Amino acid sequence: MSPFEYAPAPESRAIVDIASSYGLFIDGEFTPSSDGSSFKTVNPATEEVLAEVAEATDEDVERAVKAARRAQQKLWGPMPGSERAKYLFRIARLLAERAREFAVLETLDNGKPIRESRDVDVPTAAAHFFYYAGWADKLDHAGFGPSPRPHGVAAQVIPWNFPLLMLAWKIAPALATGNTVVLKPAETTPLTALLFADLLRQAELPPGVVNIVTGARATGAALVGHPDVDKIAFTGSTPVGKRIAREVAGTHKHVTLELGGKAANIVFDDAPIDQAIEGIVNGIFFNQGQVCCAGSRLLVQESVAEELVERLKSRLGTLRVGDPMDKNTDVGAINSAQQLARITELTDAGTAEGATRWSPECELPSSGYWFAPTLFTGVSAAHRIAREEIFGPVLSVLTFRTPQEAVTKANATPYGLSAGIWTEKGSRILWMADRLRAGVVWSNTFNRFDPTSPFGGYKESGYGREGGRHGLAPYLIEGSSF
Amino acid sequence: MSTTTPSSVPATDASPGTGSVNPSDPSADEIATLARAVTGAVDLDDAAWRRYLHGLPGVDRVGADARAATLGTRSIKTTSKAWALDTIIRMVDLTTLEGADTAGKVRSLAAKAVRPEPDDPSCPSAAAVCVYNDLVPVAVEALAGTGVKVAAVSTAFPSGRASRAVRLADTADAVQAGADEIDMVIDRGAFLSGRYAQVFDDIVAVREACHADGRDAHLKVILETGELVTYDNVRRASWLAMLAGADFIKTSTGKISPAATLPVTVVMLEAVRDFRAATGRQVGVKPAGGIRTSKDAIKYLVAVNETVGEDWLDPDWFRFGASSLLNDVLMQRQKLSTGAYSGPDYVTVD
After folding, report:
1. How high is the pLDDT of residue A2?
2. Residue A40 φ then ψ, to 5°
3. With bands split at pLDDT 50, 70 and 90, how would you rate the model's confidence at B14?
4. Which residues in B lie closer than 8 A to residue A4 (C-beta atoms)?
5. Are residues A245 and A184 both part of a single domain?
6. DSSP category for residue A8
7. Average pLDDT of chain A?
8. pLDDT for residue A86 is more than 80
9. Res B12: pLDDT
10. Quick check: A453 contacting B, CB < 8 Å?
11. pLDDT tens digits, A181-216
12. How far is A212 from chain B (nearest CA, A)?
């Protein structure tokens, strides 16, 4: 045992008041669901029930869409961009001011380490609002023709892996462009969206501009299927994304989808090795690997594979797995029992198909949903763990011999969300980036998110871009003049 | 990356993880043999060194900075903080390097190093007192029998801009006067102009001077990373110094800004880790200059803990070159035991 054991350093949860029950946020008011139904949200690290949350019915969705339509037509759409910007700046500032409250609540409801919610999720969410606030009065000059117009009402369905950050990615560009919003947070992580609704009241955002309807699959289906929404933005699994695309085909609705991924993180023999190790760790163990763009397939040049895996293993030995509220925790809890079951099933398949499984020694808490960081070597491209999105802290290591082979292997997936390249050779980075069919290609880094940079997929990872100037496009109808 | 593969290196006498000291001090010939084995070069000329040092894996600055920043977010509280504060005191090379230094100043500093907290016998001593050459006799006398070492900055410190003969004479002088440790500077001009063989030979020669007449002064090699500028250079200079027989690699003289930084220290820690894996020889690391607060020093300890592990968490293998750090640590230490800040009036000023 090291003489330097870190004493527990728990973040205080006193800063956030969690109500015993939450209503739906429709037309600026919190209201119970029309039939009084609700569901529980739990802390995945302890299985403690945090709150009862209203489950929106078709009728509630109807009310929310109506409120959004009214607000869009009467107020938010006609409002000058410079005025909309003021609200967005105000939201951004409030989010930054209340950052600790949001971070604590995010960690409690999601299971991610407080270090990540504090240093990544919340500041990046605030940065998104700041960024798009700046666009609101400049849309005429954004490259979408003169006077581009909003679609109207945006229906937005977001996942549980970055509850607040995905909310920001969706709401900020929609509001900047003059759309109003009905947003459905994920069933297992509704709380920061509801706290955000509270923040919107504090910001005095006019009623109906943002409506938040909590619920499960039925609520999402009711929202997406509602005839009076104009634009659908979905982030989540590829199967659900496909269902949405089928459902809206032939309607007037515009859709953007940000779906699954099975990203290749490609390490060449001339890579900056110590930083590559950090990038691999950050690529797959950030947020317990529950990241659509996670670098879940490590492609290593064969000449250095053995050494790299040894270094990686010794680094994984220093990861601190456990209480997400502890400020020194690197890897927290899996978000739900269902997700844990999926990770377990796929890793079992990895072992059964003949890959070699390894995890560092780490003691997992007895309650809650936990999965140790896991590394598979001897993985063949045919194995399920090399093809299917695991969405957990599980890395599959494969090898390649030449740059062309790396490109071919990296592209050999139905997905195409992200990729990473590690080499000191600049020309090779450019050569690779031109050939990788992935929406985001990171060079000598991984899992970096910036509001100014577009994010989105190729192939079955979806279509449409979020972030940057490109992120305005899905929320605008191009203007033209004759 | 192949540079860290141990297979090309002859078995050496130390095995990793055994603790405090490397069992034997290799001779100049043994050092050269090891350097040839590691570099794969018969002639250790500039070209050979260039091939080898430029073949080391690169360091990505953005990534290295990010790693150090993450390590800096660790929250060290209560019992772990108490352990860290005492360990920092035990690792401090209490330093005075002023033109105005006097015997009185050095004696005062020596007393402080031996008993940093006069009213608290549980407070450990500092590792060493670090002075200019001419004050070594004063420090030796003041510290005799206390276990606190005397370190001398030598080789025409801080610039090193003197002939090798002068620099060696400088070193011999300090060793003769009884310095336990010599902090030498490398010739940054030679390094930056690619004359690696000269830097290597310098270090080997100074090391010989440290061992002259049966003495055994430990050699700390100052890279002056603020003048090397790039992390690639820091990694290369670290390997060059270690292959030349350095017992410690040290970041800075404290006379150049920036002095020690956390990312530079992490890069050097990675180098000593890889060097031990390749050769079996453990080398210490000393960040110096600019570390003034307990909070900063704890970040360095965290970096040691998570980069190279507990084998380096000891004054034999990790030091802080500092002057004002000690008082801040003492104030934090008092705060931890009494629950209240005492303030600068409650630590001695030396």
Report:
1. 81
2. -100, 145
3. very low
4. 80, 83-84, 87, 301, 305, 310, 313
5. yes
6. P
7. 97
8. yes
9. 42
10. no
11. 999 999 999 999 999 999 999 999 999 999 999 999
12. 34
Give the pTM.
Answer: 0.95
Q: Which domain holds residue A73?
A: 21-259+460-477
The contacts of residue A8 (CB under 8 Å, 6+ apart) are: A323, A326, B77
Active site residues of A: 258, 292
> pLDDT above 90 covers what percent of chain B?
88
| Contact between B78 and A7 using a beta-carbon 8 Å cutoff | yes
State residue B20's pLDDT score. 40
Contact between B322 and B293 under an 8 Å Cβ cutoff? The reply is no
User: Are B66 and A278 within 8 A, CB to CB?
Assistant: yes
User: How is A267-316 classified by DSSP, letter by letter?
Assistant: E-TTS-HHHHHHHHHHHHHGGGG--TT---EEEEEHHHHHHHHHHHHHHH
CATH of region B27-72+87-339, choose from 3.40.50.150, 3.30.390.50, 3.20.20.70, 3.10.450.70: 3.20.20.70
Cα separation, B124 vs B90, in Å, equals 6
pLDDT at residue B246 in the model: 98
Average pLDDT over residues B218-230: 98
Q: Judge whether A235 and A48 are in contact, CB under 8 Å.
A: no
End-to-end CA distance of chain A: give it in Å, rounded: 76
- pLDDT tens, B135-177? 999 999 999 999 999 999 999 999 999 999 999 999 999 999 9
Burial of residue B144 (number of CB atoms within 10 Å: 0-12, 13-18, 19+): exposed
Residues of B annotated as part of the active site: 183, 250, 286
pLDDT band at B22 (very low <50, low <70, confident <90, very high): low
Spatial distance between the Cα atoms of A41 and A190, rounded to a whole number of angstroms: 8
Whole-number Å distance between alpha carbons of B347 and A115: 35
pLDDT tens string A106-161: 999 999 999 999 999 999 999 999 999 999 999 999 999 999 999 999 999 999 99
Residue A5: is its pLDDT beyond 70? yes
In contact, B72 and B309? CB cutoff 8 Å: no
CATH number, domain containing residue A317: 3.40.309.10
- In 3D, which of A75, A92, A71 has the Cα closest to residue A203? A92
Q: Please state the three-class secondary structure of B66-118 as a single string.
A: HHHHHHCCCCCCHHHHHHHHHHHHHHEEEECCCCCCCHHHHHHHHHHHHCCCC
ipTM (interface pTM) = 0.95
d(C-alpha A245, C-alpha A256), whole Å: 9
CB pair distance less than 8 Å for A327 and B64: no
Kindly list the residues from chain A whose CB atom is less than 8 angstroms away from the CB atom of residue B78.
7
- What pLDDT does residue B3 have? 41
A457 and A258 Cβ atoms separated by less than 8 Å: yes
| Contact residues of B toward A, CB < 8 A | 1-2, 4-5, 57-60, 62-64, 66-67, 73-81, 83-84, 87, 267, 270, 301, 305-306, 309-310, 313
B8: pLDDT strictly greater than 70: no
Q: What is the pLDDT of residue B336?
A: 93
Chain A CB contacts of B271 under 8 Å are none
Among candidates A7, A276, A303 on the partner chain, residue whose Cβ is nearest the Cβ of B77: A7
Could you tell me if B251 and B268 are in contact, meaning their C-beta atoms sit under 8 angstroms apart?
yes
Specify if A13 maps to a domain.
Answer: no
List the one residue out of B126, B116, B127 whose CA is nearest residue B348.
Answer: B116
Radius of gyration of chain A (CA): 22
Residues in a beta bridge with A30: A25
User: Which residues are CB-contacts of A176 (< 8 A; sequence separation ≥ 6)?
Assistant: A81, A84, A85, A88, A132, A133, A135, A136, A139, A472, A475
Please say whether the beta carbons of B144 and B175 come within 8 A: no
Say yes or no for a CB contact (<8 Å) between A445 and B309: no
Return d(Cα A231, Cα A146) in angstroms, integer.
21
Where are chain B's structural domains? 27-72+87-339
Q: Is residue A7 part of a domain?
A: no
